[in-house]
Amino acid sequence: MREQDAAMERYNFYNDSRTINSMVGSPFERIDESRMVGIYRMYETEVVSGADLDSDDLIDLEAIDHNVCHGCTETALDACKACPHVLEAQQNSYEVEVEVSYEVPLKFDVCPACHGAGKMIDPAIDAGGISQEAFDEDPDFFEDYQNGFYDVCCSTCKGNRVVPVWDRSKTPAKVLQAIDEDMAERRSFARQWAMELAMGC
């Protein structure tokens, strides 16, 4: 019975929104609060000239059959530059994925998790809810619960009461879409990770 109770407590803890929120993380590489911008990295498609690519790049792009050309080595670099397969491939243009950084305008919003309190009740105490019967059976526990004895720092705002959010009205559409998709993936991963932990994996 004790093992079942522990399993249920673990399940409730990792399925609690406060726990899951702490596992999501920020989409930004870093945040500069002095300038109120977040640095966001994403990949974009860019067209480049084959003349700017070496044989290894061209092989990766499947512009050259790797069975014909195995890429330049330090000792064969000059020969590879004169290779007709490379020279032919360098006459074309190619679409490549490049990593770019954007400064995303931020603003502060009241933390949606703690509603600006900067603290929350420890999910280990009340995840899954506490019945009135439990409070009635232990008045001291109820008093401590009401008086904040079980409060901990908010896992979302880290006690700051506010959280930096991207200013949707000032963020380019393509960046906004990338961040939204990034956050959706982060939340999905956090829920999956939490479920695995809840099951004891």
Largest sheet entry: 4 strands, antiparallel
Give helix and strand order, one letter per element, not per position. Answer: HHEEHHHEEHHHEEH
Percent in helix: 40-55%
How are strands sequenced across the largest beta sheet?
A: 1-2-3-6
Strand content: 15-25%
Question: Low-confidence parts lasting 5 or more residues at pLDDT below 50?
Answer: 73-78
This entry's quaternary arrangement is single chain
List how many beta strands DSSP finds.
6
Q: What's the overall geometry?
A: elongated
Helix/strand class? alpha+beta
How far is the first residue's CA from the last residue's CA? 20 Å
Mean pLDDT value: 83
Give the radius of gyration: 27 Å
Number of helices: 9
List keywords for this structure.
single chain; 201 residues; alpha+beta; 6 strands
Write a structural description.
With 201 residues, the protein is α+β, with helices and mostly antiparallel strands. The chain has a domain at 2-45 and 107-198. Helices cover 41% and strands 22% of the residues. The chain has 9 helices and 6 strands; from the N terminus they run H-H-E-E-H-H-H-E-E-H-H-H-E-E-H. The chain has helices spanning 2-14, 17-24, 55-60, 77-81, 84-89, 123-126, 132-137, 139-146, 173-198, and strands at 30-32, 37-49, 93-110, 119-121, 151-153, 162-166. It has a 4-stranded antiparallel sheet. Strands 4-5 form a two-stranded antiparallel sheet. Helix 1 packs antiparallel against helix 9 and helix 2 (17-24) crosses helix 9 (173-198). The protein is elongated, with a radius of gyration of 27 Å. Residues 73-78 have low confidence and may be disordered.
